[in-house]
Specification:
The protein has about 575 residues and is of the alpha+beta class. It folds into 2 domains: about 15-165 and about 175-375, paralog of FGE (formylglycine-generating enzyme) (Alpha-Beta Complex); about 440-575, no CATH class. Helix content is about 40%, strand content about 10%. It is built from 16 helices and 15 strands. It has a 5-stranded antiparallel β-sheet. The protein has a 4-stranded mixed β-sheet with strand order 13-12-11-14. The longest helix is centred in the C-terminal third of the chain and has 62 residues, at about 420-480. The radius of gyration is 27 Å and the shape is globular. It starts with 12 loop residues before the first helix and ends in a 5-residue tail after the last helix.
Amino acid sequence: MFDGGFWPFIGLAAGLIAATAGAQPAPDPLFNPKPLADDLELPLPCGGKMVFRYVYILGKGLLDDQSFNLGYPFSEGEPGYRQAFLAGHRSGAVAGQFLLEDLPPTWRTTLGPMLKRPSASPDGPLQPMLYFIAKYEVTDWQYRLVLSQAEAMSTASNPGASVGCPSPESGALAQQRLPKVNLSWFDALRFTEIYSQWLARHARDRLPATAGGPEKGGSLAFIRLPSEAEWEFAARGGQQVNHQELEDRLFPRKLESGGEGPLSDWAVYQPKTGGSGFTARLMPIGSKRPNPVGLHDVIGNAAEMILEPFHLVRGSGRAHGATGGFIVKGGNYVEGEDALLTGMRREYPFFDNNGAPRRNETTGFRVVIATLSAPNARSQTLLDAWKQEDGNFAALLNLDAIENPAQRLDVIIKATMDDQQKKALIAVNAELKRAIGQLAEQQKNTVANLIQSAALIAETIKNYHGRLRDLQEQLQLARQTGKKQDAADYEVTIANGNKALRGALAIYVDNIASCIDYPDSVVQEQATRVREDLGRKEVLGRVLVRRTDLFINHVGNYRKARKADPDQVLNDIVNPTRS
């Protein structure tokens, strides 16, 4: 598992939001009113469509995932603090189940140029590991199209049976585009069941299939509700935002003109009316702007049900053992702005007081494309990855075979004859390996942040240096023209600027020295993650990739010489031919 600490350690969103490539497709009012060139589609019955967006992490192997924080850390007095136990700030993880080769040809053509194979790391290539989440909430019309196939899909003996299609109501386009609400969690599951069956029978070649598909021991994709981690990672901005933005209350809301726009441009919710009597209402899909990965209405409009049931979160950040009702995310159109945040969730009972399935006028759902996590064709690869990870944690922490306590305990366990004692030792060893694994993850995150921050500091140093050069020219001009006060002001500014530059340089050199405390394999792996993450961003990201390369070169030199010459480091940073 890796944490993704290669994200920028402070907000760089203006230069780091990926651009959408390709010509803009024409809007489809019913199914894709706000199209993007890299949208992905699956068919629906009766000529309909379901549009998806891709979310990914970068990983070396199938057991890699990305840690991030779910929920929100409310402070006392902050709006929503009294429900902090519901938001449940805690550590989670997300991963994609699909590799590029698992995708249908048209999807590979669309995504291939943007997700080309990253450069090799010492332990093998990094690659995007993807999952797919619906761009919009499931609409009233999409729900009707799928449920119209319910009877045919229940007739296994006649899989090719055709059924009639519902007729759209004349002049009711807006109604058909509304998110489907007033349905139960079981209704949502029924939708995914029927739709998955229909796709497998009528559009099998359009579905992703892992490891060659079922015929080769792999698995065919299916439709389900998203997990809370999948929903929240995508809602927060996924791979398109930096670490700080991923932790924020809401995803970044960038305007083309610069700055951040009001939430009302991105979400349907109840505004503060001041007694005007205005009441928000459910709006058609695509009425507002999308979040950074291209999803609409993750905040406001209809709240959204997810797959797993509710668990309280203890103050330590661990999930409580009791299992509750179903979870809805994102807030809804009758809630105010203070209640809307990507980390918030609500708990509802599966059944109402009369025993009927609980339905809400404010709750709908969106779906994801999923598959088996461990198909037979990948069992050996997963076992090898599991064994390698289990044995490598201590190595990542610079513990050799003699010092590795987990390995030493393994030897003791094998030599223990008493069954009860052996069971106790196995439990202790499992906890020890878990703790070592957590330390290894923290180490990776620390190294990635050192590299990322060093790249940013190097760019800051170069900017300082350029500004000081300009100030020196202005100082010389002031002296030549006899402007003594101007010259004095420039001297003070230059002195302060030099102090700032030297301070930044000292931090940069400290980062170099700090990286020496970690194995070179870890440094190189995290450097690859930094490069690949930044390389997909706009201009500033590409600049920081060059700064990353320079920093890794400085780390290598330090390993050999055990020292760094600050003046030489400065020259390397500011010399255009070497930076």
